[in-house]
């Protein structure tokens, strides 16, 4: 058997040097990551460089795969939101706020009209209900201010 030079090693020695199993070295050879010399040995320096290049490439693919996974997740979420909107489960914030404003306006107008509608000829009771309606409108306004302050802080 011919004597090997310092840079030429066996598969077992290469595996020890690269901290991997002998079978993993065989897998790297079969996939073309590292090359076996014609005499069956391995050029230690060349194999180390080729293995490092392989690891960098795998990391680069992993990073782009991660970016792709994030993109796919965001795209799926967007599709879910579109479907929910089409099914009537979602609506635009502006549309919801406009509808709420309209309903609150109708409610407050109704509260304001209530005393006169309930007591068209009984002024004493009308004043009592007007006072209660005024207090209710004040509580509603205070709650709205409180919520607005919570949302801005």
Features:
5 helices; two-stranded antiparallel ribbon; 2 domains; 153 residues; 75% helix; rod-shaped; mainly alpha
Describe the protein in words:
There is one protein chain. The protein folds into two domains: 8-83; 91-152, no CATH class. The chain has a two-stranded antiparallel ribbon with strand order 1-2. The model has no long low-confidence stretch (mean pLDDT 89). The protein is mainly α. It has helices spanning 11-17, 22-30, 44-86, 93-118, 123-152; strands at residues 8-9, 42-43. The longest helix has 43 residues, at 44-86. The protein is rod-shaped and about 115 Å long.
Q: Give the tally of β-strands.
A: 2
> What gyration radius follows from the Cα positions, in whole Å?
39 Å
N-to-C terminal Cα separation, in Å? 81 Å
Query: Whole-number average pLDDT?
Result: 89
Unreliable spans? none
What composes the largest sheet? 2 strands, antiparallel
- Numbering strands along the chain, what is their spatial order in the largest sheet? 1-2
The dominant shape is: rod-shaped
Query: Regarding quaternary structure, how should these chains be classified?
Result: single chain
Order of helical and strand elements: EHHEHHH
Q: Number of helical runs?
A: 5
**Percentage of residues in DSSP E strands:** under 5%
Helicity, in percent?
Answer: over 70%
Name the structural class. Answer: mainly alpha
């Amino acid at each position: 058997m011919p004597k090997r030079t310092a840079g030429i090693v066996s598969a077992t020695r290469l595996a020890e040097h690269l901290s991997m199993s002998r079978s993993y070295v065989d897998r790297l050879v079969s996939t073309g990551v590292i090359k076996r010399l014609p005499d069956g040995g391995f050029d230690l320096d060349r194999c180390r460089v080729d293995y490092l290049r392989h690891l960098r490439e795998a990391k680069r693919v992993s990073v782009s795969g991660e970016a792709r996974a994030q993109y796919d997740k965001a795209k799926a979420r967007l599709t879910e939101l579109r479907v929910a909107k089409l099914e009537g489960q979602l609506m635009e914030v502006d549309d919801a706020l406009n509808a709420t404003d309209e309903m609150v306006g109708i409610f407050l107008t109704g509260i304001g009209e209530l005393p006169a509608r309930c007591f068209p000829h009984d002024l004493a009771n009308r004043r009592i209900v007007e006072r209660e309606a005024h207090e209710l409108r004040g509580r509603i306004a205070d709650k709205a201010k409180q919520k607005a302050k919570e949302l801005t802080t």
